[in-house]
Amino acid sequence: MSVYDYKVIGIDGEEISLEKYKGKVLIIANTASKCGFTPQYADLEKLYNEYNKQGLEILGFPCNQFAGQEPGNNKEVKNFCQLNYGVSFPLFEKIDVRGSSAHPLFKYLSEEVPFKGLNLNHPGGQILYNFLKEQFPEYLIGNSIKWNFTKFLIDKEGNVVGRFEPTTEPLDMISEIEKLL
């Protein structure tokens, strides 16, 4: 299997086969508009602007599973992203990314690259870990998505080659992206 075996729904309602992105390097991220990590939209857009012509695509999947931080409908999410962060990379309909209702794509991504822990040396990593331990201890178990802005890096053949937890800034992924381009 590869990511190309999955179909998703674009934010405007059209079905899209991820096979459309064959031969591209992908970043697939679950996103939210009211999260402490929401400013990562700006850096994802920077990466998109810098590397899209070289073959990078960024696919954003809004999700409201984490403390209700993506309450809007698809149109509101799209407008928020465009108005506040100038997002021009593809966005998709709101989905679940963990648990029994998780979209099959995110189940696959989570199984392909297991959770290796949060970077506790990063101030945000320690804060997120403590928050999850106190509020959502079940989130720390297993390989499922832990919070908004978990990012998966996919090579040109559709293989999942990296998982970057929310505390990894998108621009910190540049060396890994450049290797794949």
UniProtKB/TrEMBL annotation:
Catalytic residues of the enzyme: C35
Record Gene3D superfamilies: Glutaredoxin
GO molecular function: peroxidase activity
Pfam families, per database record: GSHPx
GO biological process: cellular response to oxidative stress
Keywords: Oxidoreductase, Peroxidase
Superkingdom: Bacteria
PROSITE patterns xrefs: GLUTATHIONE_PEROXID_1, GLUTATHIONE_PEROXID_2, GLUTATHIONE_PEROXID_3
Family: Belongs to the glutathione peroxidase family.
Protein name: Glutathione peroxidase
Organism: Clostridium carboxidivorans P7
